[in-house]
Model the fold of this input.
Amino acid sequence: MTSTELFYGPDLAAIHADHHEALARTAADVLLPLMPSAGRVLDLGCGAGRLSLMLAADGHEVVGVDLSPALLSIAQRRVPSGRFKEGDILSADFGTVDAIAAIGEVVNYATATGGPSALETLFRRVRESLLLRGRFLFDCAGPNRHGQGECVWSEKPDSFVAMQASVRDDIITRKIVTFIRRGSGWEKSSELHRLRTYEPAEVCRMLEEAGFEVQRLSGYGEAQLPNGLHPFLATAVNLSGYLRERSDQTAAEYSKPSSW
Ligand SMILES: C[S@@+](CC[C@H](N)C(=O)[O-])C[C@H]1O[C@@H](n2cnc3c(N)ncnc32)[C@H](O)[C@@H]1O
Done:
């Protein structure tokens, strides 16, 4: 992506917010019961803020980071109490939080250029930002996410979006064309998205090396996930080098036997 290319520009952002947030909704159902009361959550690649909204409504403090100003402005409107920052998750400051989410292939997008070493670094930074036993919920596209030339589209009364995928080794390039009804006509825009896929076993290995206990989920709750999209729930467990003090409860966790 160059700075002049659209990436979740206004049209795709509006369509995403109106019609493509099922994943974020169901991911919130998984994360909410795992949160401490009045916890702090970082929503990486927060998009239009659906997950942030559900967490904030449950009393949690939310920070979202995303590359797309159009999505961020929808998120900020929806969640006035949230702090939404424009930035790349590979370099953004994460702070210290109880949970981190990256829902909707965010890690695949963010590491399209940097590859596995960028993903390893991201996992380490996520681990360093989490309190002990903090959760990292995310999904990651695997090699079978799309077939070569696969084409999908979705038609609504006021919008139409079509996506065609081309696959080369572990890189997926999606051409996305949108049409939005404006007045008596339709406006077209198009975007190119690049993602890098990872074998789920490789993702598990990287997470464990970063200091996580890893649970591979079969889905977000009962929800059917798109083909080749793998959800992970990682728990921050490795004590060495990561101790942080936040509360008495957390301090008690620190004093648990080192059998972890
Ligand atoms: C499929 S959308 C998912 C949005 C949201 N998490 C949801 O579930 O509705 C992927 C998101 O990742 C964001 N994204 C991709 N690469 C990013 C990066 N390097 N840093 C921050 N955000 C990124 C995009 O802008 C987009 O909002």
Observations:
- The CA atoms of residues 26 and 119 lie 24 Å apart.
